[in-house]
Amino acid sequence: MTKDIQPIFILPPESTRTTGREAQRANIQAAKLVAQAVRTTLGPKGMDKMLVDSAGEVTVTNDGVTILEEMRVDHPCAKMIVEIAKTQEREVGDGTTTAVVLAGELLGNAEPLLEAGVHPTIVAKGYRLAAAKAQETLASIARPISISQEDLLERIALTAMTGKGVEEAKDALARIVVTAARTVAQGGKTAERSAMKVERKAGGGVADTELINGLALDKERVASSMPSRVAGARILLIDVPLEIKNTEIDARISITDPDKLQAFFDMEERMLRGMVEKVARSGASVVFSQKGIDDLAAHFLAKRGIFAARRVKKSDMERLERASGARIASNLDDIVPEDLGAAGLVEEVKVGDDRMTFVRDCPHARAVTILVRGSTEHIAAEAQRALEDAIGDVSAALASGKVVAGAGAPEMEVARRLHAYATTLSGREQLAVKAFADAIEIIPRTLAENAGLDPIDTLAQLKAAHDNGAVWAGVGATQGAAMDAWEAGVIEPLRIKTQALASAAEVAVMILRIDDVILSGPEEGAQGQPMRHDGP
After folding, report:
1. Residue 63 annotated among the catalytic residues of the structure
2. Is the pLDDT of residue 411 over 80?
3. How far is 179 from 169, CA to CA, in rounded Å?
């Protein structure tokens, strides 16, 4: 007599589980929805999104990573797509929308193959082959660039800022970005993004944006009696407080004699005066402290004619090091003249409603600041994002030393070569390679759609041009027809394309290989998930 098989529960009752094709469909759909959310922002004619958070704060932008961060998606696979944008932003600084749209299309094109019975591992293998071939193609068509090619660098900055809400001032902003990059590079081959700070203040217009050959700090002098302007500044950077430290443990001082109380205050004053004397003996006329400065110490500094700012961020202290040539001192007793930096002018200036400290005209600046202005906070914030994209693009181009044309031209060339490559494969992988090639075309297709062009006609023109050897044939969003993107000055760093392709392909492969989703969080009304045991 056979016993009834009893279900064995291994998951908690509040868990939910989705398996097989149902899980794959849900994951792919979530990824596609994220891509669709940012797709209309791509390109010079892309639209903006208005994002309103729970506190009512409004952000108007077409920056992919900003949109995705504000959306706060919950689906696990959607979060993986958002992570692509964050990685792209961190590694390159631009191309976030491209990466997300590519990932969504790669997953969308895989779905018909899965429905037709092609195993996910075969699709994943084909995608890996296609991604490797795409990287090889991009490397073969890329052109070199160096710090001396100022005009080409400006073209890169202009391409990054086109369609970002700074159209009326983008030429001037591009020159500012390139000047900043050449300044921090100082004859080197690369320009570090971290050495180019972007600070924003509402007021004026975007055209009032300026490059400071030094640093702009959102700080004011500690005391109003200090000089507000110091020419030929000798700068001291310290990460020790100019104040009396509190004890590490709870302590109580018991004073029974009023004279002893006065003696205690006198001792504190002497200690602070001694600290200021050490600063003054160093020859410094300007002090920036990462820690606090006591009000009494500020009074003594002011009497010495020394400008001081306190609680400066560590990142700004490091930029001050690069800008002025100073070395951060950790002990007031060990300061030597070589620790001091130099600046042509240090001044406190009122910008909008706030006071800021400017460190200008550093003779050997290895760090600079771009002070972005805008008539409103929203406009200034969007201009800041556009400038950060441009800085990222210029830095990435110099880091890799390679650039390509934009406007969808490299994607069309990669797609053409992938279709040819697919014919050399004999297994089912060729279906995946073809799907990958078709997915790449989503970039020029989207550029055409966002520009109000017919995507079918545009892609047909581009395919014909690339078949005839026009490697840089791309979408003419403003011309309304195919164009030579290189001649038109639409230039992008190679690294944007390689990073976006690599990230999109890797996350698509990862999501395709998922066939079981187990959600452990509590869900009202969820039933436990049984797993049968086939034993007796």
Report:
1. yes
2. yes
3. 16
Q: Which CATH architecture has domain 21-143+404-456+491-519?
A: Orthogonal Bundle (1.10)
Strand locations in 205-338 (E): 210-212, 215-217, 229-238, 286-289, 307-309, 328-329
Radius of gyration of the chain (CA): 30
Which superfamily does 215-364 belong to? Answer: GroEL (3.50.7.10)
Beta bridge partners of 236: 287
- Is the Cα dihedral 187, 192, 193, 195 positive or negative? negative
pLDDT for residue 217: 86
- Does 389 participate in catalysis according to the annotation? yes
Among candidate residues 94, 316, 339, 389, the one labeled active-site is 389
Task: Determine which one of 87, 97, 98, 209 is catalytic.
Answer: 97
Q: Among this protein's residues, is 457 annotated catalytic?
A: no
The β-bridge relationship of strands 286-289 and 307-309 is parallel
Active-site annotation holder among 63, 94, 294, 393? 63
Distance CA 91, CA 340 (A): 34
pLDDT at residue 228 is higher than 80: yes
Contacts of 139 (CB under 8 A, 6+ apart): 402, 494, 498
For the chain, the domains span: 21-143+404-456+491-519, 215-364
What are the distances in angstroms from CA 477 to CA 142, 169, 275, 428, 448?
Answer: 22, 20, 63, 37, 7
Tens of pLDDT, residues 252-264? 666 666 655 555 5
